[in-house]
Amino acid sequence: MKNNNKLIIAYSFIGLFVASCSSVQVTEEAVYEDSIQSIEVSSNRSESSTPMESKAVLANATVYFEFDSFNLSTRSIQALKSITELMQENSAIEITIAGHADERGTREYNLALGQRRAESVADYIVLKNISRSRLTIKSYGEEMPMSSSSNERSWARNRRAEIN
Amino acid sequence: MKKFLILILLPNLLFAELLLEITKGSENPYRVAIIPFQGTNSSVNIIVEVLKSDLIRSGEFFILDEEMLLSIPSNIEEIKPSEWKLLNIDFIVLGNVIDEENSGLKATYQIYDVNKKNKIRSSTVFGIPGKLRQLSHYISDGIYETVTGIKGVSATKILYVNEIINSTDSDYILYVADADGANEQVLLKSSEPIISPAWSPDSKKIAYVSFETGMAKVFIQDIGTGERELVLLNDNQISSPAWSPDGKLLSLTLYQDGNAEIYILNLLNKNLTRLTKHYSIDTESSWSPKGTKILFTSGRSGAPQLYEIDLTKFNIKPMRLTFEGNYNAKGSYLPNNEGIVFVHRSSNQFQIALKYFNENFIRPLTESKMDESPSVSPNGNVIVYAITDNTSGMIAGVTLSGATFVLPATSGKVREPAWSGFLR
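The joint structure predicted for all components is written out below.
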């Protein structure tokens, strides 16, 4: 964390007087300026993801979705089958399911949509008798695109849930 | 003395990362002549230049070129109305700036109404050394208010996020800047995404969503002290913060049961009240100006649409407000409660649109392909929004009278603008 102490100007607000005498507006005021502090944070994402990877190197997959949809396709189910089989065989495997959206639409709605995609994947896995406690479910919305162009092909790649 | 001052002031004017550019003015602007300010202060010309830019950028004003002035009256008594009628000028601004002993600057200005043939405003603003632009913003807001009858927003601020793309990753920076884009300062720099910045009603605190813990979480940060805290400590994703107008409550989207639902958090005792209960997505809450209603986006009809909950009525079903098109989201109320502004999809383009409550149609306000994150100025006259795609992003704005402007980014993908309340 880094704090830049900016010049603090503690100027008192002298006042704003509005008087109306014969339709002339008369005012007096002082410029007010707050101090501003800067903060820097870095994530612990790399630290937390390392043990997870060593636990389940093989249990990763990416499944894709239609626009504004969180339904699993037949192809997605095929990919998830192998994940659930792995998890059934090895009860030590825990996975993170991260849902994503393409850039179209609003960021918060896309965050919720990514969550629904991750939940769809989780619901399928839980149906196959895997405990929900082995799953971490989250969404990155449209914030972490796989492909950074603005076209149909890249949007289709970005509407996904990543399992690892 | 003069040289010394110029050395200090130029960086402020030249190195502003973003500065708002008007792209189209109002079709019927107020025509104003600003007589060069008098006074002992050496920066008087800069103050007037910033003042003129402020008024032009509002989109509501035409400012007469200095070369076009037929005379330079040194006081109200010297104004000859007939002369200004020739130039079709409606208002004349006179002023001066002097150095106050052992404090800052003192600016005084008068506004003369050419049609009414009398003085309509006489004001004094005390400035802070090194904050010349603020002094101009205050004068601009005074002129704007007297002429248009609406409070000006030159002395307000805007939050926005800039994503700086590096070779392998990105930095996400939350900035605060003056409403004209100058004087930008870093509030938060992170290696993970930051979205949905929001102001507290007193504009002293901000709330935002940060992914720094590996998951979307809402933080509140004090702008002045830099102190910040997670609003709730739990294992779930939390997003979309919005302050109630009295500053006591924060509406949020929680993902307790895996699905996005809207809750209201009491900031004093941390009590949570659940507001929505539906198996589809409910998010993007915002408060009506009086704090009695909550507007939000819901997917309950099969596609995102805007709904409203009346908080004064118990157990009432949310009322759907938008019916045109299959995507209407991220709504907010106009400050006078006469309508809502939101993102609307029309033939595969995402535009900012406005719907007045007394009209049964929506008014598209923008034309680019992917506009998002509309934020309304505190006077209700201007809407800023982000023009984005995966490779670039900038902030643009549109006034209700049809003027447009952009705040171009020199680097990075700028987005998520949020307009403060009135600061003066």
